[in-house]
Design a protein that fits this description.
Distance between the termini: 43 Å
Number of strands: 31
Radius of gyration: 26 Å
Shape: globular
CATH architecture of the largest domain: Alpha/alpha barrel
Length: about 700
């Protein structure tokens, strides 16, 4: 990565590798909250010049550290360290200067600030619009405050304070510290930067740097302790899992309805429908309770009316929600925006899977009104889509494609022509089937047998229609979609792989679909491509037409695991593990290019987000697939059918929350190399383990 980014709560900080936010930078660097840039400049100079970068570290996810030097050749140097984190709505940064000249040295250390309060859409040049105006800078003792009055009449402020009394504030937001350091003497200053708006205020009192960092680290330790813990003899898997769980903690936020994950950094630091739901689905094996906040958040913003401006319809689950000035002044439809076809069935899928893991019917009962509205929306969409759930863009500033592949060119016929909407994606039909199939017995438990029977019947009817309409006999796989004329969009893609999770495909076709995805034109050695190399639209550096997405592979892997297709599952896991070691801090990115693994390394996608929530969650799916772990609260059983990838001979997973307690297991490869022994270390779930 050519940037450093940290996040905590609603705030995230994006900077250059040296820690700076340069004046008028084109990369969008800044301190952000509520889709607003509260700090647009943060530059360090020593005697009017930028120190040279020595090292830049972000291995802890939530702390960024920089080591710099201002050197006079053959004479000595001033070494500078910068350490930053975010806690309780404040950015803390400690800057330390050490004299490595063989004599006492005098110099000026300067830090320059600015705040433009730009909406993120303006920063990224995705939108234009009418905005507010700066109201100036207020300077007080060891403090300066930038103030902005938005077009929405909201006052936004950035307060910057420091703990050194020697600072001199100059016009334009520069603080200069005249320093004189003895040989190897160190002097430091700590800045606290606080974004403020009507609904954005710091929580708690300001803390000393070390105290704030300690409390932040304690919150991470509590997070680890509350989740499933793993140990294996594969350092690569151990590190990928640790990295993923750490990143998921960083990407957690609460906008008023409980913890949920944002989509990713730097530009998607808000709750999404699809992203947050899929991430919560992936996180079930480490702690099913993480799903609760996501479900409640999305239920709170469920569509209530027909509003083409936002692609809103009653019962629909949102695509994403934004909070910036363009949104609050109705110049952008993201308040929230509803242009997604898959969030609504995935909302129901997650409810069903949550019950399978927990047996918690109370949450299902709490969300019953939302479930019914979501089902009504799905049924209305299916009626208008000739029996399939289909989408068509309504909002002028929305998305033309509204599945997870939402780029304009992602749904393409084999002749290269774009499919005309309404478009009925294959995987979405699978989500609908899975939702209705899994909810049916829950309505039975809630004393609504007629609803249960109706949902079960509708699921079976959809299955029959789907098999007839989507199967491509010549390709031995399903089409990615049907277009407005119900013609198959015959490009071979990864989308139908998600069907395996749903349980909808007929058994022999499910196996054929799995086999098709592992052929060389789809599997590049590191993962399953989004599109076959034999398809007209294939391009290895395309966002959706030939790249490899870890989360896409993980969705497929959930299905491979359910079907017991261990060989294919092992191939996917091993490929992504091999890919992971080539990325910084072994962090799987949002996506990488589809070039063949014969190159010896994955080719990075130029503008990928990292960390990305559902990419972070893929290692958890690896764990679930290797354990063959599928709880079923209805039967009070836990299916367990493990395997280990090559190079791993032992895997231990403890504190897996299932039912009313926890499961802990150890899997060991036997001497023959191909069979495995399972030891149940703990089972307080109340469920029977079925191997």
């Amino acid at each position: 990565m050519d940037y450093r980014v940290i996040k905590e709560g609603e705030l995230f900080m994006l900077s250059e590798l040296n820690g700076d936010i340069g004046r008028d930078n084109e990369q969008g660097h800044g301190l952000y909250a509520q889709d607003t840039r509260f700090l647009s400049r943060f530059e360090l100079e020593v005697d009017g010049a930028k120190p040279m970068l020595l090292s830049s570290a972000g291995d802890k996810s939530y702390v960024a550290s920089f080591r710099l030097i201002k050197e006079v050749k053959d004479e000595g140097a001033i070494e500078v360290t910068r350490d930053r984190f975010i806690y309780n709505g404040r950015l803390y940064e400690r800057i330390a200067f050490t004299n490595y000249f063989p004599r006492e040295i005098a110099f000026d250390a300067s830090v320059s600030f600015d705040a433009d309060f730009q909406d993120m859409f303006l920063v990224r040049k995705y939108r234009t619009g009418d905005v507010g105006k700066m109201e100036g800078v207020v300077v007080q003792d060891q403090e300066m405050t930038f103030r902005y009055l938005g077009a929405d009449q909201v006052i936004r402020q950035t307060r910057i304070s420091w703990d050194a009394e020697s600072g001199q504030v100059y016009t334009g937001g520069t603080v200069t510290f005249p320093l004189s350091l003895k040989i190897q003497e160190t002097w430091s200053v700590t800045f606290q930067i606080v974004p403020m708006a009507d609904k954005l205020l710091p929580t708690g009192k300001p803390l000393r740097f070390d105290e704030g960092l300690q409390r932040l680290e304690q919150s991470y330790e509590a997070w680890y302790a509350d989740n499933t813990r793993i140990a294996s003899d594969s350092p690569v898997f151990n590190e990928l899992y640790r990295r993923g769980v750490q990143d998921l903690r960083m990407l957690t936020t609460d906008i008023g309805y409980g913890d949920t994950t944002v989509a990713g950094l730097p530009w998607f630091a808000v709750p999404f429908g699809r992203d947050s739901l899929i991430t919560s689905l992936f996180m079930l094996p480490i702690n099913p309770r993480h799903a609760v906040g996501t479900l409640r958040t999305l239920a709170a913003y469920q569509g209530e009316k027909v509003d083409p401006w936002r692609d809103e319809q009653p019962g629909k689950i949102m695509h994403e929600i934004r909070f910036g000035e363009l949104v609050t002044t109705q110049q952008s439809p993201f308040s929230p925006y509803y242009g997604t076809i898959d969030s609504t069935p995935l909302f129901l899928v997650l409810i069903g899977e949550y019950y399978r893991w927990t047996g918690d019917l109370s949450l299902v009962q709490e969300l019953r009104p939302n479930i019914m509205r979501a089902l009504d929306y799905i049924d209305a969409s299916m009626r208008s889509g000739s029996g399939f759930m289909a989408y068509k863009q309504e909002a002028d500033k929305g998305f033309p494609n509204q599945g997870w592949k939402d780029s304009a060119n992602s749904i393409m016929h084999e002749n290269g022509a774009y499919a005309d909407s309404p478009i009925a994606l294959a995987e979405v039909q699978g989500y609908v089937y899975q939702a209705k199939h899994s909810l049916a017995p829950l309505f039975e438990l809630m004393g609504e047998p007629e609803t249960a029977r109706r949902l079960a019947a509708e699921a079976e009817e959809l299955q029959a229609r789907f098999e007839s309409a989507y199967w491509m006999e010549d390709e031995q796989c399903y089409a990615i979609a049907l277009d407005k004329d119900l013609r198959q969009v015959r490009s071979v893609s990864s989308n139908p792989g998600h069907l395996l999770m749903s349980g909808m495909p007929e058994a022999s076709r499910a196996k054929a679909q799995a086999v098709r995805m592992m052929k060389p034109d789809m599997f590049n050695g590191y993962g399953i491509r989004t599109m076959s190399t034999q398809s007209t639209g294939y391009y290895p550096m395309s966002y959706h037409n030939g790249s490899v997405w870890p989360h896409d592979n993980a969705m497929i892997l959930l299905g491979l695991g359910k079907l017991g297709l261990k060989q294919e599952a092992e191939q996917v896991i091993s490929g992504l593990l091999d890919a992971s070691v080539h990325f910084e801090y072994q962090r799987l990115p949002e996506l990488f290019c589809g070039h063949d693994a014969g190159l010896g390394h994955p080719v990075p996608y130029p503008t990928t987000c990292s960390p990305q929530a559902w990419a972070a969650g893929t290692s958890i799916v690896f764990l679930q697939a290797m354990l063959g772990l599928y709880p079923d609260a209805l039967r009070r059983e836990i299916a367990l059918s493990p395997f280990l990838v090559q190079g791993m001979n032992q895997l231990e997973a403890t504190h897996i929350a299932i039912g009313g307690g926890h499961l802990s297991v150890r899997v060991t490869r036997n001497a023959d190399g191909s069979t495995f022994s399972v030891e149940i270390l703990e089972n307080t779930t109340g469920y029977t383990v079925v191997e």
